[in-house]
Specification:
alpha+beta, four-stranded mixed beta sheet, three-stranded antiparallel beta sheet, 3 helices
């Protein structure tokens, strides 16, 4: 099992969502990448790298994994703050448009989740990688119809979905090859 690496993201006031409602976010420790197969001690499916994000997790599976790692799922507000920061970046890496060097999105050559260290140009200023693309990330924020907000886009997503303010939702019982988990801890 590979050790997790954590990054501190300073707190602040997030202008959340389309209406930019101010929401306070405390400083938090985040896993630097989505949790990988090797980090959680699981065997990936055939043809998938052990350093690719663990996928195929329902919301409940993601909550259990986060707790086993010593953290929890972030809220959608916390996730958005981590992605846009105090400078209100359009994308996690900044305001520059997407290129295949920044994130694994539709139009990349991969067509599946990739190792989390392949896109250093897409890192946030705090050093978090794969915030955009590769796999959507579960949040703890519920939506109507027994779903939860997912953030970040996946390898099948258009670049628009990689924007820090873009959110989507998935049924909590969905276990998809395009949804993973990033863990957060209160300080």
């Amino acid at each position: 099992m590979q050790l997790l690496s954590w990054a501190l993201v300073a707190g602040g006031v997030c202008p959340y969502g389309d209406r930019a409602r101010p929401r306070s976010v405390p400083p938090l420790a985040w896993t630097r990448t989505p949790v990988t197969w090797s980090q959680c001690g699981r065997t990936p499916p055939p043809g998938v790298s052990p350093s690719a994000p663990v996928t195929g997790l329902t919301f409940q599976d993601a909550e259990v994994l986060a707790a086993q790692i010593g953290g929890r799922l972030p809220t959608s507000v916390e996730w958005e703050w981590m992605a846009i920061g105090a400078s209100l970046r359009r994308y996690p890496w900044g305001d520059q448009e997407w290129t295949p060097a920044r994130a694994n999105l539709r139009g990349s050559r991969y067509g599946q989740p990739t190792p989390v260290d392949l896109h250093p140009a897409g890192a946030t200023p705090d050093g978090l990688r794969d915030v955009a693309g590769n796999v959507w990330e579960w949040t703890s924020t519920p939506v109507l119809g027994d779903g939860s907000v997912i953030r970040g886009g996946s390898y099948r997503s258009l670049p628009l979905y990689a924007r820090g303010k873009f959110l989507n939702a998935a049924p909590r019982d969905r276990a998809s090859a395009g949804i993973g988990v990033r863990v957060v801890r209160n300080l």
